[in-house]
Design goal:
With 342 residues, the chain is of the alpha+beta class. It contains twelve helices and 16 strands. A hairpin with a 5-residue loop joins β5 and β6. α4 crosses α5.
Length: 342
């Protein structure tokens, strides 16, 4: 492998097609948060203002024939502890799953080459490789551990948040039969109640590019009814999310969906429909229609749609909220890995 450094957004953009093609071949890290267009948007605001400053420090590896073989999407900043660190682009708060982009068969070779490359480069003066939000079953973890042991680096792994997900059977009734009986009854009851409501109801996916900005604004309005989410939606974060939604829409994997009651927006989900999975990213609900449980019904409708359209999984991503498990989610976790030369 021949490794080189990417330190400008223009170079990152030039790699877009190769980058995304490689990502599509890496099942362990084939997540929307590692798409080139997503990370370029993230970098443009440093995560909606999560980081005050940073320097792009992405390492790529090529085979002898010039083919892109691996990407370590890194940047240099002071981490939350104030240490000079190399971190994964997308860290920490708004990108649920992060990783290196490399096939399983090359993960060991790439990890070794990466550590040697980082140790040999005197700038920037990083002290720690601080990697958040890697799935606990990522092949990169074992590869990094082996490389750290080989070169005498410190290696520490910490379990972070649970990431509940639902493997989908591809049939709505089969899915319902696999969850708790009380929950199954609740789903059916609430869906029937809304269907029988005297005022017209509908749910729909946003598909018109001309109306996308207005729909995004409506989504923010629903989000802001939650005080915690309203605090989260700073000006920079709104810019970040809007740009992210536009990038995902243009690339064909945005799933922005609304439930309307009497022509007024009652609930919405911002998801990514990517690589056969539905990734549940954020949501917003109107207090006006709380008694009709529009969020619950919309989520149930999305699960039904996902089964009928043969999606493989419904991924709630980070956070151990109880409702996720009531819908039948199974647990897995993301971890933080810290590596440093001794």
């Amino acid at each position: 492998m021949q490794l080189s450094l990417i330190q400008s957004i223009d170079e990152l953009t030039t790699l877009s097609t190769e980058w995304n093609d490689l990502l599509a071949c890496c099942s362990a890290s084939h997540v929307p948060f590692l798409r080139n267009e997503y990370l370029r948007v993230w970098w443009s605001t440093l995560g909606g203002g999560e980081w005050e400053s940073g320097d792009l420090y992405t390492v790529i590896a090529r085979q002898e024939n010039g083919e892109l073989a691996g990407v370590a999407p890194l940047f240099f900043t002071n981490n939350r502890s104030g240490e000079p660190a190399l971190m994964l682009l997308g860290s920490i708060e708004i990108s649920d799953y992060l990783d290196f982009i490399v096939s399983h068969s090359l993960s060991n070779e790439f990890a070794e080459a990466l550590l040697l490359f980082l140790a040999s480069d005197p700038s920037p003066r990083w002290k720690i490789l601080d990697l958040y939000n890697m799935l606990e079953d990522s092949p990169s973890l074992d590869a990094l551990l082996k490389a750290a042991c080989k070169f005498g680096w410190n290696y520490y792994v910490e379990k972070l948040q649970p990431c509940p997900f639902i493997p989908l059977p591809g049939d709505w009734e089969t899915y319902l039969s696999g969850i708790d009986k009380k929950q199954r009854h609740e789903i059916r009851r609430k869906m029937r109640r809304l269907e029988a409501h005297t005022e017209p109801t509908r749910w729909y996916f946003v598909s018109d590019p001309l109306g996308l900005d207005d729909e995004i604004t409506a989504f923010f309005q629903l989000m802001s009814e939650d005080p915690e989410k309203n605090s989260f939606l700073t000006g920079k974060m709104r810019d970040q999310l809007r740009s992210c939604m536009h990038a995902a829409f243009d690339a064909g994997w945005l799933q922005l969906v609304f439930m309307e009651i009497a022509g007024r927006k009652a609930a919405a989900y911002l998801n990514f429909d990517f690589a056969g999975h539905v990734w549940v990213y954020n949501s917003g609900f109107s207090s006006e229609f709380r008694e009709l449980s529009p969020g619950w019904v919309l989520l149930s409708s999305l699960l039904k749609w996902s089964n009928e359209n043969k999606r493989l999984a419904f991924d709630f991503m980070r956070g151990g909220e109880d409702y996720k498990y009531r819908f039948g989610a199974l647990d897995r976790h993301v971890v933080r890995v810290r590596l440093s030369p001794r």
